[in-house]
Amino acid sequence: MNDTHIYPIFDKMMGRADKESLLRQRSTMIWFTGLSGSGKSTVAIALERELHRRGFLCRILDGDNIRSGINNNLGFSPADRMENIRRIAEVARLFIDSGIITIAAFISPDNRMRETAARIIGEDDFLEVFVDTPLAVCEQRDVKGLYAKARRGEIKEFTGISSPFEEPQCPALRLDTSVLSIEQSVEKLLALVLPKIRL
Predict the structure, then answer these.
(1) Is the sign of the CA dihedral 51, 57, 63, 65 positive or negative?
(2) How far apart are CA 21 and CA 4, in angstroms?
(3) pLDDT digits over 66-77, tens only?
(4) Phi, psi for 151 (deg, rounded to 5)
(5) In the predicted model, is pLDDT for residue 4 greater than 70?
(6) In the predicted structure, residue 57 carries a pLDDT above the cut 60
(7) What is this structure's pTM?
(8) Backbone angles phi, psi at 7, to 5 degrees
(9) Under 8 Å CB-to-CB from 105, ≥6 apart: which residues?
């Protein structure tokens, strides 16, 4: 077989710097981690809206748009949870390489998962934000009744109840939404993110 026409295409594709120049921004990954009900998605959405208002292109990845699509074949076993995070990280890397500021909001309950995501995405591009809201507050906010079901034993391996959550060792930012308003949380995030995404 003549393989003279087989060659890698990556060195011929336009690169990340080209996309960032077009969009007038630097891409980065803002990875929210925390318990269910901690405020990850709420703060992520508020951050996206504020960055959009300032002219930055963002993409949010969260359980609703990932679990219903690319990861709809995965359950909640430890192996499936790790695969869920691995796939999310691979998708996020594609967005980062396209110059897009990417925001992820996932429980991602252990350090190994988050370290895997950071390694795939690139540690220089990975900002870990720990939404450190107390469990009692998360339970009070639980509109779906998941915590109550977990306490009754109806949901197995529920993070914070029957499955552990490992706190990040060195997050770029820690937010407690039981004491910070959404606006205050976004203000702290902007102080962290804007210097990194401005060209």
Answers:
(1) positive
(2) 34
(3) 877 878 888 878
(4) -70, -25
(5) no
(6) yes
(7) 0.90
(8) -150, 155
(9) 32, 40, 41, 44, 60, 61, 62, 63
- Whether residue 102 contacts residue 28, with contact meaning beta carbons closer than 8 Å, is answered with yes
> What Å distances lie between residue 110 and 23, 34, 66, 69, 163, CA to CA?
34, 10, 19, 23, 10
Would strands 29-33 and 126-131 be described as parallel, antiparallel, or unpaired? parallel
How many whole angstroms separate alpha carbon 45 and alpha carbon 40?
9
188 φ/ψ angles, rounded to the nearest 5 degrees: -65, -40
DSSP 168: P
Active site residues: 108
pLDDT, one tens digit per residue, over 169-191 is 999 999 999 999 999 999 999 99
- Token representation of residue 64: 């609703």
